[in-house]
Write a structure and sequence with these properties.
The complex is a heterodimer of chains A (433) and B (333).
Chain A lengths: L8 H20 L15 E7 L2 H17 L4 E7 L1 H13 L6 E4 L1 H9 L18 H5 L2 E2 L2 E2 L2 E2 L1 E3 L1 E5 L1 H6 L12 H14 L3 E3 L7 H10 L15 H16 L6 H10 L5 H4 L2 E7 L3 H8 L4 E3 L14 E2 L2 E4 L6 H13 L1 H7 L5 E2 L2 H7 L5 H13 L17 H13 L5 H16 L1
Helix pairs in contact in A: 1-3, 2-14, 9-18, 17-18
Chain B lengths: L1 H5 L4 H6 L18 H41 L15 H6 L3 H32 L6 H14 L3 H10 L5 H8 L14 H11 L2 H13 L2 H9 L4 H29 L3 H6 L13 H11 L3 H29 L7
The chains are: A alpha+beta (433), B mainly alpha (333).
Chain lengths: 433, 333
Amino acid sequence: MKSSNPSGVSRRTLAKAGIFGAAAAPLLAACGGEDGGADKGDGELDFWWWGSEPRHEYTQQIIDAFIAENKDIEIKPSPADFSGYWDALNVSVSGGNTPDVMQQDEKYLRDYADKNALLPLEELDIDLSQIEDSVLKSGQLDGKTYGIATGVNAIALLVNPALVEAAGMTVPDDTTWTWADFIQFTTDLSANGDAVGNSGVSLNNESLFNVFARQRGESLYNEDGQLGFTEETLTAWWQMVVDLRDAGAIPEASKIVEGYAAGQDQAPLATGTGVTEFYWTNQIGAIQDILGSELLLLRIPGESEGTRGMFLKSAMFWSVGRTTSDKAAAGKLVDFLLNNDKSLDLCLADRGLPSNIAQRERILPTLPADQQLGAEFIATITPELGEAPPVSPVGAGGIADIMLGVYESLLFDQATPQESAAAFIEQASAAIG
Amino acid sequence: MTDNDVAVVRPEQRSSGAPPEPAAGAPAPEPARARRGIGTTIKSRERWAALSFMSPWLIGLLAITIGPMVASFYLSFTDYSLGYGEWVGGENYQRMLDDPRLLQSIKVTAVYTFVSVPLQLAAALLLALVLDRGLRGMSFYRSVFYLPSLLGGSVAIAIMWRQVFGTEGLVNQVLAMFGVQGEGWVSHPDYALGTLILLHVWTFGSPMIIFLAGLRQIPTMYYEAAKVDGAGVLRRFVSVTLPLLTPIIFFNLVLQIINSFQSFTQAFIVSSGKGGPADSTLFLTLYLYDQGFTQFNMGYASAIAWLLLAIIAIFTALNFLMSKFWVFYGDND
C-alpha cells in the first residue's frame, strides 16, 4: 500500500498544529512509554526526518526504492523543518509514540538516549563494516550505539573571492593564519571594499567557539558532560568579537540581529554584502546557489598556533525508537539508508560526506561541483584533525539560544566580555547541570 | 464578569421579592403531594437536562482544560521530560529563585503589560468617544477600527511588523524623508519591546466595541442636565461619562491585563522564537516554551506555567480589591 499522504505536507502541518493539543494526551495516557518492542514486527515503520524541500523529495525516492525491495514493509514518512521537528518529536516521544526510525542531531542524542527513547543499535542487524570508526564513536554513549552518523561535516570559513579581489586584496594562507590575522583581514576588507569583512552571524556558534577552545587545549564540553573551558578562554573569545565590532570588521549590532533572524539565505554572505562567514561545509551549495558565484573554503584561523581545534562533526544520525513495532524492519531500513547504492546515489553528500567509506569513494566523482568543494576540503583537513569532541551532554540543545542571548547583549554594549563570559557559564551550567 | 459583580439589586426588584419561579413550561404542582418533594424532582430533572445540554462544553472543559491543568500541577513537582519523570518536590519552584532569565522574562512581561494596557485602553476610549456620535456610515468605521483586533494576534501581522520596523523598513524610509536616520527598531534591545507594545496598542478594537456599548448605556438626560448647568464638553466627560463608564473600564482593564500577560505569538514571531535581541522580548510565555520545548525541561516549564497563573490571579484579585475605590456602579450610595 502506498503512504496515505505522499506529499507529507499536511502531515507536517498537522504535526505542528497538534503539538499543543497533543501535549495533553501523554499526561492522560500516563505511562505510555513502556510498550516494549514486539518481537514479531507488524511491518509498519514511522520514519521521521527534518530538512528542506529537496531533501524531502529525494528521501521519498529512497523510501520508494526501499519498499520496492521489501514489499512486506510499509513506511509512513514524516518530513519536517528543523525547529518544528524537535517540537513534534519531543511531544511524540513524551506521549509514547516514538517514531521507529528517525533522524537525530548530536545536540539532542544524549537527551533522547538518557530517557530510554532510543534502541541500542547493537540489537539490530545493521552492517557497520564500512563505517569509519571515529565517526561510529560519535553516536556511542557508555559503550552502546544510539545513533549512526549519516555523514561528516566540518566548520570552515566561507570566503567570496570576487569581493576579496574587489577590495584589492589577496586571500591569506589559511594553513598558517592566526586569529589576529583574521581580525586584520576582515577589518581591511571592510575598509577597502563595499562589503563588510565578516557578517557576524556565526560568532555565537558554539561549535566555532569549541574550535577556539580546543586550540587552547580546552573544549566546549568535557567527557563528564560539564563545560570544559575556562572563563578566561570565553572572555578572550568575546573580547575578539568586541575588537571585530570596534574595527568595523562586522556590521553594527542591529544589522547582525536582523541578518540572524533572516536566516543564512539572506545573511550578508549570501546576498553579496559580506565577504566571509563561518558555516558547515554541507551548507556551501545552498549559499552559492543564492549568491550565484563561487566561494572558497578556508581553515579556521589559529590552527597552527596551539593544538588543532578543527574537528569533523557527525552531520546527523539515524536512530531507532526503543518501542519500535518491528525491530527487523527498522534495522533493514537503517542498513539500506547507510549502505545501499540506491540510497547514496540519491542522498549524495546532502546529509554530510557519507560515513560509509566505500560509498563515499564511490559517489565522490559523481558529486555536483558545490558538494565536491566541501568533500575536497574535508579530505584535505582530515589528516590534520585532532580527536573528535565527546558527545554533547543532556541539555545541550538549549546552549545555542543561551549563547545567542549573551552574544546580543555583548554586541549592544550591555555587557563587557568578562560579564558575558560569566553570564554564559552560569546559564549554560544550569542548562546542562 | 462585571454583571455578577454588580449584582444589580434595585430597590423596586427587592420589594417585589418573589421566590424564584420554576420554569414556565413546568407542569403545575399537584396539591396532593408535598410541595418540597415535587420541587426536588423538578429541580433534579432540570439539573440533568442542564448538564446534558452543557455536556459538549463540560467534556471539553474536563478533558482539555481541567485535566491538563491538574496534570501540569503534578508535573511541576517532577523533572518530567520525554516521557519520564521523577518526583522532585519543590525543586522546580526553588530553582526559580536563582534563574536570571526567568527574572528577566518577568520584568519584560510586566513592562509590556503595564505600559501597553493603559495606552491601549486610552486609545480605545478615545476612538469610542469619537465613534459614539451619530455619524453616517458608522458601522463601516466601527468595522475598520475593529479589524486590527482580529488581525493583531496573527502570524502574518507579526511578520509584517518585523518588516515595517526593520533597518530598511517602512518606518525608517518615512523617517529618512525627514532626514532622520532610524534604528533597526525590532533588532535593537532598547526598542524591540516598544514595537511589540505598539502592536498591542494597535489592537484597541475589542475594548473599543465594549466602550461603545457602555457609552450607549449612559442616559442622555444626565448630559442634558449637565448642559443646563452650563458644563462644557470636557466637564461633561469628566463628571458624567467617566464615572458612569468606570464599570466598563474596570471590565476592560481586567480582561486586557490577563490577555497581555498571556501574549505569545507576536513576540515569538518578531524575535524568531528566541525572545531576542538580548532577551529584551523574552515574555514569560516564551521562556516557558523555551524551557519546555527547546530545553526539554517540561517539569520546570509546568512550574513556570503555574507561576504565570499565580501572577495573573494576584493582579486580578488586586484589581477587584482596588475597584472598590474607583468603580462607580450608579446604584450604591
